[in-house]
């Protein structure tokens, strides 16, 4: 048991005298954390825009419509539900395009990445135009 105490004293003496300093891996973690944050914040903002827009629309229509007239708010409710539905239905385009572009860029195929992005943009324009008609 005295050998165990001696080993513990040796270990504690060595560790207590050496200050803990950040290693080079800590800067890598910071950059990785920063990259994750750079992706997460715009995604969070894009997901928060739809409910915020609906709240703003409801506030304006409720404030500026005629008193005791339920029809403008009822119409807004239907329109907001349709907008949210179309937003989620057409969200597949971004969800499907992002990994395809990422794979092309990871393979150093910038032309292929631009081609996939252009195709997705063209499809979005066609679907958006069809939705407006």
In short:
The chain contains five helices and no strands.
Beta-strand residue fraction: under 5%
Shape summary? elongated
Q: Low-confidence spans: pLDDT under 50, at least 5 residues?
A: none
Strand count: 0
Instruction: Please work out how many helical segments DSSP would assign.
Output: 5
What proportion of the residues is helical, as a percent range?
over 70%
Biggest sheet: strands, sense, closure?
none
Estimate the mean pLDDT confidence. Answer: 80
Radius of gyration, whole Å: 28 Å
Elements, N to C (H/E): HHHHH
- The multimeric state of the shown protein is single chain
**N- to C-terminal distance:** 86 Å
Q: Briefly note the structural class of the backbone.
A: mainly alpha
Provide structural commentary.
The protein is mainly α and 133 residues long. It is elongated. The chain contains 5 helices and no strands. 86% of the residues lie in helices and 0% in strands.
């Amino acid at each position: 048991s005295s050998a165990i105490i001696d080993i513990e004293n040796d270990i504690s003496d060595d560790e207590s005298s050496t200050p803990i300093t950040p290693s080079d891996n800590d800067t890598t973690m910071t950059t990785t954390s920063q990259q994750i944050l750079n992706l997460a914040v715009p995604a969070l903002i894009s997901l928060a825009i739809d409910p915020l827009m609906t709240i703003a629309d409801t506030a304006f229509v409720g404030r500026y419509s005629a008193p005791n007239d339920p029809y403008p708010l009822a119409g807004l409710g239907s329109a907001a539900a349709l907008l949210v539905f179309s937003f989620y239905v057409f969200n597949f385009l971004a969800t499907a395009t992002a990994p395809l572009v990422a794979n092309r860029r990871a393979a150093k195929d910038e032309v292929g990445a631009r081609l996939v992005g252009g195709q997705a943009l063209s499809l979005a324009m066609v679907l958006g135009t069809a939705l407006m008609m």
